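Record 1 of the preview.
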Amino acid sequence: MDFIHENTSGAFVLGGDTPNNGPFEYTSLPITLGPLVGNGEEYLFEIVDAEFQDCFAVAEFIAPNCGPSECSINEIIATSLACNPDGTYGLYLNIEYENVTNDYFEVYANGEYFGYYLFDDLPLLLQNFPASGEEYDVITVCQNDSDNCCATEEFLTPDCNQESCMIYGTGFEVLECNDDGLFYAVLYFEYENIGDEGFEVSNDAQNFGQYEYSDLPITIGPFEGNGETYSLVIEDLSLNCGGLAYLESPNCSGLCSIEDVLVETFCDDNGLYVELNFDYSNTSQTGFRINGNGNNYGSYSYWDLPMTLGPLDIPVEIVELVISDIEDETCSNLVSFENIDCLTSTQNLLEERLHIFTIPSNDQLRIEVLGQGTILEQITIFDVIGRPINLPHQNNAQTVDIALTNLPSAVYVCEVITEDGQRLSQKFIKNW
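->
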């Protein structure tokens, strides 16, 4: 807050919607007030001189809305495509949305739940959208688990009772990039029972024109050569049927690119492994190398992808791997991920697979490991004060039965050690 003052005393106080009334020295202007509630409403302050109370002024302002922005699905783009033999049809779906708080959204077809999908996967081709039999069908889209963030759209349906118009087998031949970083593509597809007015090709950003089926294949564009995927809708102009085509864009920058690195980690008895895959363009024929955390993990061919790296012994919480082209080190990508404690991970896996339980009808204790590959090398039974009890049993097996005939009813502890050195203890009760 700041203001101009004349013939005042040395200080002023505030009244109104403020958590701090002062007094404040005029020499401290401007002053900061707060914290205030950011609710989008009007605030009113009364500024009063500390000595001359008839010397005052009123200040007001509108607070910003600092609360969480509401989820909103603003527009549904739904285009019906070709009919299926079962009476359903394909549907091209795209959504304009903002401030979603969930990765997924739900789709309802004519009021019935149809499925859920990732926002990141848009646009989508819904393969078997059910027909209501009406001229228009209804699609509703909601953020997953949120009835307050929804939108509904009506769209014209294909006539699936007539001999089906079909557009299928879409594909492209990508032409060379030009000096502006753009490219054209040749579109081709198969068709049956089409109308006599031709077809149209479009996507959300551009209409590429109308054509006769006899014009096929056709050259369309230009497209930006950015390495992304374009989704195009092909619509018959008279029969309300169509198809969807996906165009993989080349990297027209001419620069080497390593991107969209995917990492999955897992453990086995030998340690940590990393499953690695990524997209690349304009790379060298020599291959790539992997470095990270002070180690060189070797050189590989791009043809090796996807690949498994390991076992790795990395004593850090966050693992960083740098993937770089062998001939162009500026062509690289850094991926980081949380390390796995394979000892703990393997121990947790043993806890999930190990079953220790009594069989009162046979007066036995059974110890078994589900799955293959883990052998029970040593089994020891203890009483509650930790004394071992000598009970004859088999070792070096996946399932072991131990007779409890001579044991009194009590609480006991069974300790197992596997052939790879894992140790696990579990209580059991003999109550018969």
